[in-house]
Every structure is written in structure tokens, then in C-alpha cells.
Amino acid sequence: MNARALLLVDLQNDFCAGGALAVPEGDSTVDVANALIHWCLVRGDAIVASKDWHPAHHGSFARQHHVKPFTQGQLDGLPQTFWPDHCVQNTEGAELHPLLADQFIDVVFPKGEAVNIDSYSAFFDNGHRQKTGLDEWLKAQKVSELIVMGLATDYCVKFTVLDALKLGYEVNVITDGCRGVNITPQDSTQAFMEMAAEGATLYTFADWQETQ
Ligand code: VGL
Ligand code: ZN
């Protein structure tokens, strides 16, 4: 009872250097992830990951709407930022970062597979219409506490954390294990503030280690 899980959000090639939607310093989160994996293995925590996993013609892709990437629009009645094509199913860009110790991940939850809706959160799509299976999996393992890190701070990490809090999990965010897209420069800072305001506890990896 009261088990704990490490949740690694979208540590995929396309969000790292050279990727289609490269997040500045995205790669630098992988060392933090591997260190956390080590800690969690020793303690016997569950280790789970999410993967952005889009069909080739996903509705979040700017190309599908003949608009420039990073512009705003709507997708199936929801506000949508249009992105460069990224994390297309079964492409190298959608693979987890090669240096991530992914052999220790218990289960990976894909998201963003439905063409007409995006899915930033690892728990639900952006309309909260469908669940990914992550919540059920964690509840079956009696997980009540999460350690969350990954990419990108201002999208998938933020919405994953906000959903986790609404679902009743105790959420610890490892800030230096996250990097943001920052379409506007303050987006990541703002995202961390929102997560904290809703009840997440923010730690640097060094500070988190002190608590263990
Ligand atoms: C993400 C934009 C589009 C993320 C995914 O993982 O944060 N951002 N798709
Ligand atoms: Zn995406």
C-alpha cells in the first residue's frame, strides 16, 4: 500500500537535440532520469513512462492545416497549438532517448494516437474524453505518490502533473529533470508555478535526494 512510482514524461528523440520539436537542453534531462531510475529501483518503486505517439497525419501537426508551426488554432473544438510533425509512430523520432536506461521501465503508455485530438497529459487526452490506462495501472499497483519529470515542462509535464493532482496523487516534480518549449520565455516558470499552486511539490534532484 502507498506505493510510489517514477513517471518519465516523453523522453523521446524528437524533443531532444536534432529532433523535430527539439526542446532547448532536452537531452540534459536524461542523466537526471537515469539517476532517479537507480534510486527507484533500489527502493522498489514502479517505473513508468509516457510516449507521444502520433499517426503521420495527426491533427496537431501544422502541415495538416497549411499553417506555420507554433501558431494557434482549434482542433475538434479545442484550442490547439500547431506543431511541427513530431513523434510519428514507429519512427526514430518517437523512440525514447538512446541513453535512457529504459530496460528498467515497467510499462510505457502511448498517447496522442487519435487523429482529431491532442494528448499532453499522460492520463487523458486534452478534452478529458479518453483515459490512457495510466491511472488504472497505478491504482492497481496501489501507487499514491508520483515522482514526475520529463519533456516538455510547459505542455506534457504540466498537464500530466495537473491531472495527477486532480486524480488524487501526491506529486513531486523534479524541476531539473524537465525542460520547456518556451514559445514565450516565461512559459516554463509559469508552468512550475501552476503545478505548485495546484499542490505539487517542486524539488531539484539534489534537494529531492536530501529527503530520501
Ligand atoms: C509535447 C507538444 C506537442 C510534449 C507533445 O511532450 O510536451 N509538446 N506534443
Ligand atoms: Zn505531440
Automatic annotation (TrEMBL):
<feature type="domain" description="Isochorismatase-like">
    <location>
        <begin position="5"/>
        <end position="205"/>
    </location>
</feature>
<comment type="similarity">
    <text>Belongs to the isochorismatase family.</text>
</comment>
<keyword id="KW-0662">Pyridine nucleotide biosynthesis</keyword>
<comment type="pathway">
    <text>Cofactor biosynthesis; nicotinate biosynthesis; nicotinate from nicotinamide: step 1/1.</text>
</comment>
<dbReference type="GO" id="GO:0008936">
    <property type="term" value="F:nicotinamidase activity"/>
</dbReference>
<dbReference type="InterPro" id="IPR036380">
    <property type="entry name" value="Isochorismatase-like_sf"/>
</dbReference>
<dbReference type="Pfam" id="PF00857">
    <property type="entry name" value="Isochorismatase"/>
</dbReference>
<keyword id="KW-0378">Hydrolase</keyword>
<dbReference type="InterPro" id="IPR000868">
    <property type="entry name" value="Isochorismatase-like_dom"/>
</dbReference>
<keyword id="KW-0479">Metal-binding</keyword>
<dbReference type="InterPro" id="IPR052347">
    <property type="entry name" value="Isochorismatase_Nicotinamidase"/>
</dbReference>
<protein>
    <recommendedName>
        <fullName>nicotinamidase</fullName>
        <ecNumber>3.5.1.19</ecNumber>
    </recommendedName>
</protein>
